[in-house]
Amino acid sequence: MIRPILIHPDPRLKKVVDPVADITDELRRVADDMLETMYDAPGIGLAGPQIGLMSRLIVLDCVKEENESPRPLVMFNPRVIAASDERSVYEEGCLSIPEQYAEVERPAEVTVEWMDRDGNPQSETFDKLWATCVQHEIDHLDGKLFIDYLSPMKRQMMTRKSQKMKRERARA
Question: Which of 8, 63, 133, 153 yields a CA-CA distance of 20 to 30 A from 74?
Answer without folding.
Answer: 8
